[in-house]
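**Fold in tokens:**
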Amino acid sequence: MRNSEEIIDYLNQLREEQGVSISELARRVGMAKSGVSRYFNHTREFPINRAPAFAKALHIKTEDLLGLEPINQDKSRMVPLIGTIAMGAPITAEQNIEKYIPEYMMDRYADDTLFALKCKGNSMYPLIPDGAIATIRQQSDVEDGEVAAVLINGEATLKKVLHVGKTVVLRPANPEYTDIILDKDHPGTILGKMIKYEMNFD
């Protein structure tokens, strides 16, 4: 899946190829030009929930804009949706699982341990909307700038991860929220890397 910068670069490429100005693009997606300009100036994260409107405006599929691989309906698997996390129990232990949800995964994740979390709150908006279902690949560390599920005081939270020396900084996408610092006095555990999320999951 493309990150915000890659999505904007691709939109710019499409816009130039089709001769569409930012003003015209803003009109097509029903936004103010100033708002769209902030995406293209990289001063604001591109909100994934607007991807369908931008894709339609430039005559492509939403999946193509986001860089998602085609779904293979024959390769579904059931992924546990984690509710509360019992202290000391493995992430996918039965007492942690709220239910199982069907997922259509790319081949490179076929042998990985996967679980899902329901996003709560607006700390990662507009990158990840409230209520989205995030699919997580279980791993103990992630690269700088990647979104991870992190366990703090028995609750899992989704944040961008930054490494500063021996300190881990958890950064929200929403500037109205503050960083969370993980150190010896404020411990936390990285559960895994977010590889995708879905909206309007039933």
Observations:
- The chain has a mean pLDDT of 83.
